[in-house]
Amino acid sequence: MTAARTEMIDVVFEISGGTLPNAYPYALWGELVKLIPQLEEDESIGVIPLRMAESKEGMLLPKRAKLVLRLPLELAGIVSGLTQKQLQVTGNELQLGACKTRPIQHYPTLHAHLVTGAEDEVAFMAEVESALAAMEVKASLICGQRRSLKDGEREIRGYSLVLHDLTPEGSLRVQYAGLGKERRFGCGIFVPYKVISSFE
């Protein structure tokens, strides 16, 4: 029998700014913790990677960009204190606007930009299958590119990953729990990916 899960929610902030380096997640998390120190205490809290476009100066934050924190429901009120705050991220100023909560919905196909795990792809996939089995989740898996998040001496490595043919309950379990480590740096967080699905 599966253990009771912690209900998670997405808190979505309007965000504006200019360009950021590829390794921005490290500095972004540092700024968030500086403003809300309680974030450091819970490893289940994640920051969904920003959707950005590449430019000559770095990664460009588009208009209508959103900063999304995924966290336990009971912490939503605490992080709402970030509304209208300014963040200094690697010398770039980011301005947060209004925020709203967004319940996590089930989707049959999910994608994570980077899931940490074994260096070898076969071993990595075995780890993923074991983690999903522990959650009692069945899915078809597609392992993507090898990825890394490097900033000086710090480096996180893993693979991108797509899960499809998820049941509604399985989809929520994966989105609530994530896979692998380093959720605070955008790793192992699953979001909808609507390209591949036998349900569509």
Set down the secondary structure blueprint:
Blueprint (H helix, E strand, L loop, with lengths): L7 E9 L2 E2 L3 H12 L10 E3 L4 E3 L2 E3 L5 E7 L3 H4 L6 E4 L2 E12 L6 E7 L4 H14 L5 E12 L2 E11 L3 H10 L13 E2 L8
Antiparallel strand pairs: 1-6, 1-8, 2-5, 3-6, 4-5, 7-8, 9-11, 9-12, 10-11
Number of helices: 4
Q: Low-confidence stretches at least 5 residues in length (pLDDT < 50)? A: 196-200
Write down the Rg: 17 Å
Which structural class do you get from the secondary structure elements? alpha+beta
Order of helices and strands: EEHEEEEHEEEHEEHE
Describe this entry's structure for a reader:
The chain is an alpha+beta fold and 200 residues long. The chain contains four helices and twelve strands. The strands form three sheets. Strands 3-6-1-8-7 form a five-stranded antiparallel β-sheet. The protein has a four-stranded antiparallel β-sheet with strand order 10-11-9-12, covered by helices on one side. Strands 2-5-4 form a three-stranded antiparallel β-sheet, with no helix packed on it. Mean pLDDT is 91; it is low at 196-200.
